Amino acid sequence: MTKILSYVVLIFVIFGCEAADNSDVFKPIENPEVVEDTTSAKLTYLALGDSYTIGEGVAEEDRYPVQLRDTLETQGVVIEKLQIIARTGWTTDQLSDAMDNSQLDPSYDLVTLLIGVNNQYRGRNPENYRPEFIELLNRAIGLAGNDPSRVIVLSIPDWGVTPFASGRDSAQIASEIDAYNAINRQASEMAGVAWIDVTPISREAANRPELLASDNLHPSGLMYRYWVEYLYPIAYQILKEDK
Predict the structure, then answer these.
(1) 28 near 94, Cβ under 8 Å?
(2) Entry pTM
(3) Tens-place pLDDT, residues 164-213
(4) In 3D, which of 122, 154, 125, 124 has the Cα closest to residue 137?
């Protein structure tokens, strides 16, 4: 299969956490949530991340991995096993720990990765994010049969434009998110992995409330649908020869 290198698209989104009171918003949940559809596994898809991937604040069918699977199916590409390893509040090291404690297949036909917003929220240095993200990216490639063309990385959205962030320094948040994304983009390009830039559209949420879930922080189902419009062509190209 032709290797997919540095496939960059503009789109937009928001972030990972629990609603309500700020002290608990990014508090990690102890046990990993694994969502599985286990019909006779043929094409398989593993989605790794935090609240953006588990779809905090939206119905299960509105999560972006589920919408991506359903969209592919309409075009005759049937993913018979979808596995999601993601939790609201997770940082890179917590995702890695959850993967250690999860039942994983030896290889998946498609792997997506979106992680890092909680590192930024907790004030961690972006340079500490770099080795932890690279380790996760390498694990994702390994779980894709050591084929980087079967992995898609999504950029971290800018939650600083949301009502939840009211009273915070939105310019500083934007600058830090950009620094984190520069790292995950560079690592993806060096590894030959597709990288999707969802950050610009996330900033549109400042003027488009319909892009946010009811907690005024996380993406709505509509936002996730926009993600899928850009993810779908890449995922279809990856999987079409295997259907």
Answers:
(1) yes
(2) 0.83
(3) 999 999 999 999 999 999 999 999 999 999 999 999 999 999 999 999 99
(4) 154
Do residues 109 and 242 make contact, with C-beta atoms less than 8 angstroms apart? yes
Domains of the chain with CATH codes: 22-242 (3.40.50.1110)
Pairing of strands 33-38, 79-86: antiparallel
User: Which three-class secondary structure state does DSSP give residue 33?
Assistant: strand
43 forms beta bridges with: 79
- Number of residues in the chain: 243
Check: CB of residue 195 under 8 Å from CB of residue 185: yes
Measured distance CA(84)–CA(140) in Å, rounded: 13
What are the backbone angles phi and psi of residue 60, rounded to the nearest 5°?
-55, -40
Measured from the Cβ of residue 200, the count of other Cβ atoms closer than 10 Å reads: 15
d(CA 150, CA 238): 6
Which one-letter DSSP state was computed for residue 202?
H
